[in-house]
TrEMBL record:
<dbReference type="InterPro" id="IPR019127">
    <property type="entry name" value="Exosortase"/>
</dbReference>
<feature type="transmembrane region" description="Helical">
    <location>
        <begin position="74"/>
        <end position="92"/>
    </location>
</feature>
<keyword id="KW-0645">Protease</keyword>
<keyword id="KW-0472">Membrane</keyword>
<feature type="transmembrane region" description="Helical">
    <location>
        <begin position="12"/>
        <end position="31"/>
    </location>
</feature>
<feature type="transmembrane region" description="Helical">
    <location>
        <begin position="38"/>
        <end position="62"/>
    </location>
</feature>
<feature type="domain" description="Methanolan biosynthesis EpsI">
    <location>
        <begin position="308"/>
        <end position="501"/>
    </location>
</feature>
<feature type="transmembrane region" description="Helical">
    <location>
        <begin position="254"/>
        <end position="274"/>
    </location>
</feature>
<dbReference type="InterPro" id="IPR026392">
    <property type="entry name" value="Exo/Archaeosortase_dom"/>
</dbReference>
<keyword id="KW-1003">Cell membrane</keyword>
<dbReference type="GO" id="GO:0016787">
    <property type="term" value="F:hydrolase activity"/>
</dbReference>
<dbReference type="InterPro" id="IPR014263">
    <property type="entry name" value="Methanolan_biosynth_EpsI"/>
</dbReference>
<keyword id="KW-0812">Transmembrane</keyword>
<keyword id="KW-1133">Transmembrane helix</keyword>
<dbReference type="Pfam" id="PF09721">
    <property type="entry name" value="Exosortase_EpsH"/>
</dbReference>
<protein>
    <submittedName>
        <fullName>Exosortase A</fullName>
        <ecNumber>3.4.22.-</ecNumber>
    </submittedName>
</protein>
<feature type="transmembrane region" description="Helical">
    <location>
        <begin position="104"/>
        <end position="120"/>
    </location>
</feature>
Length: 511
């Protein structure tokens, strides 16, 4: 539907209101999901740019209003299948408490709703403004750990190449003038997200050929990664050369943003050399105005609008039904596990950075004189924001850690005749070093992979209407060689893993 000068705008008002209702309906149906996105924008400076994404998309769409007038509104029915797929993905994300899936599924419904009600020609013309809305999703935490590692590697290698001796332990390192640590704020994820978002917008506005747009977007990904490594190295060098009087406090962040701004200025300045958005010469003949397309009839729009609303709204309605019919969760009780290994004294004061569990159990043992402990964190119907599996759950907190995680690797251990894949973390704290084996226990299955764990949770929710799950952690101290700790934990699990899992299984509830 477009406005025709020959007819008053009031004659199109019903169609315009119907299209507006269809485009706004996802915000109403998925209000909690939309609110959770805004809450992340509000709480994290990394994703504060989300506030301007939708206004920018609307501004880009407004800029194409003249071309859109000549395009007829023709609802595209195949888009309903895509909307239904997004709704199903949202429901699975809701069941598995996978926030990123919920967010992307919801936001993807906005351009898909426009595709379904406005039609393929209009959606194709607005492809970038509609796709740009996806940048509103607060995504990027998954890159923090890899970026921390790459920044630490770059900084240490650059220091060594400069002739400065470095002693490294995980992502912390020492040089003759002081100690440094690469933490989340140093990862550069904020720079990367900002660069990619601005880079895509700049490439769309500045270039016309696809290869130039793609090349600039690739540059907007690569440049901030290397620039962040250089930034970290320069900050360490400023601190080193100033005797640890500069770049060791708040000025650390100021220098970082100034350097990043300079690098981005260079990137866009160089990119402008090959720009393709120069306006045509003034004496060039003007293109003839295209006639306005006739408005779409209500007989064509109404069935499509109702079908779109049904495809979008059925999933949160079904989720609401499941919540109302689900029985109230029973309390979880984890009693002391009767193990073969003798009990021993507590040898460490350590609390992992996990949210408060429905039930928690910790025991210390001393098989063959080697201290071994285990911790169970059992979750059932946790409150909003409390999850068994999430990127924010760590063995040590990011800020002000008493214990620091040095390294984490995936290992396959043979526990008797059984194979067990787990994550092994080396930790350093006030009482020395400690080795931690940790994995998830969900509906009788074990995994050390977050994604597999989420799939197990979804399967359990669909089959048993249960969201029970537990984090299992086995730990032991060591000096310099961790192998004696591995031997002790391996022997402990061989005798008592079955008893630990039996204690977990005793609480598992199925419908």
């Amino acid at each position: 539907m477009t406005l025709n000068p020959a007819r008053p705008a009031q004659s199109y008002l019903p169609q315009m209101l119907l299209i507006g209702a269809v485009l706004l309906f996802p915000f109403l149906a998925y209000f909690k999901t939309a609110a959770s996105i805004v809450a992340i924008w509000d709480s994290s400076g990394t994703f504060a740019h989300g506030y301007v994404i939708l206004p920018i998309s609307l501004w880009l769409i407004w800029g194409r209003r003249d071309a859109l007038r000549a395009m007829p509104v023709q609802p595209w029915w195949p888009a309903l299948a895509l909307l239904a797929a997004c709704g199903a993905a949202w429901l699975l994300g809701e069941m598995g408490e996978v926030q990123i899936v919920r967010h992307y599924a919801f936001v993807a419904m906005l351009p898909l709703s426009a595709l379904a009600i406005l039609g393929l020609p209009i959606a194709r013309s607005l492809a970038f403004p509609l796709a740009f809305i996806l940048f509103a999703v607060p995504f990027g935490d998954v890159f923090i750990e890899p970026l921390i590692n790459s920044t630490a590697n770059f900084t240490v290698d650059a220091l060594v190449a400069t002739g400065i001796p470095v002693f490294r332990e995980g992502n912390s390192f020492s040089i003759p003038t002081g100690n440094w640590s690469v933490v989340e704020a140093c990862s550069g994820v904020r720079y990367l997200i900002s660069s990619v978002t601005l880079g895509c917008l700049y490439a769309y506005l500045t270039y016309r050929t696809t290869w130039r747009r793609a090349l600039f977007i690739v540059a907007s990904i690569i440049v901030p990664i290397f620039a962040n490594g250089a930034r970290a190295y320069l900050i360490v060098m400023i601190g080193h050369l100033s005797g640890m009087t500069l770049a060791v406090g708040f000025d650390h962040l100021i220098y970082g943003w100034v350097f990043f701004g300079f690098v981005m200025f260079l990137l866009f300045w160089i990119g402008a050399i090959w720009r393709e958005d120069i306006a045509p010469a003034a004496d060039a003949p003007a293109a003839p105005a295209l006639p306005d397309a006739p408005p779409a009839s209500m007989a064509r729009l109404l069935p499509a609008a109702l079908a779109i609303i049904a495809c979008v709204g059925i999933w949160p309605a079904y989720d609401y039904y499941l919540e109302k019919t689900e029985a109230a969760p029973a309390p979880v009780v984890l009693t002391e596990v009767a193990t073969r290994a003798p009990r021993g004294p507590a040898f460490v004061d350590w609390t992992p950075a996990f949210p408060t569990a429905s039930a928690e159990l910790q025991q210390f043992h001393a098989p063959d004189g080697q201290p071994v402990g285990f911790k169970l964190l059992y979750y059932r119907k946790p409150p909003e924001g409390t999850k068994l599996i999430t990127t924010t759950n760590r063995l040590s907190p990011v800020k002000d850690p008493v214990w620091r995680t040095i390294t984490t690797v995936v290992r396959d251990e043979a526990i008797g005749a059984r194979g067990l894949r787990l994550r092994e973390s080396s930790m350093s704290g006030p009482s020395g070093k400690m080795l931690v084996w940790h994995w998830y226990w969900i509906d009788g299955s074990t995994t050390s992979n977050d994604y597999v764990g989420k799939l197990l949770q979804i399967r359990q929710k669909l089959v048993h209407a249960s969201d029970d799950g537990a984090a299992v952690m086995i730990f032991a101290p060591y000096d310099e060689n961790p192998e004696p700790a591995r031997v002790a934990m391996r022997a402990f699990l061989k005798g008592d893993l079955a008893a630990i899992e039996a204690a977990l299984a005793a609480n598992t509830r199925h419908r």
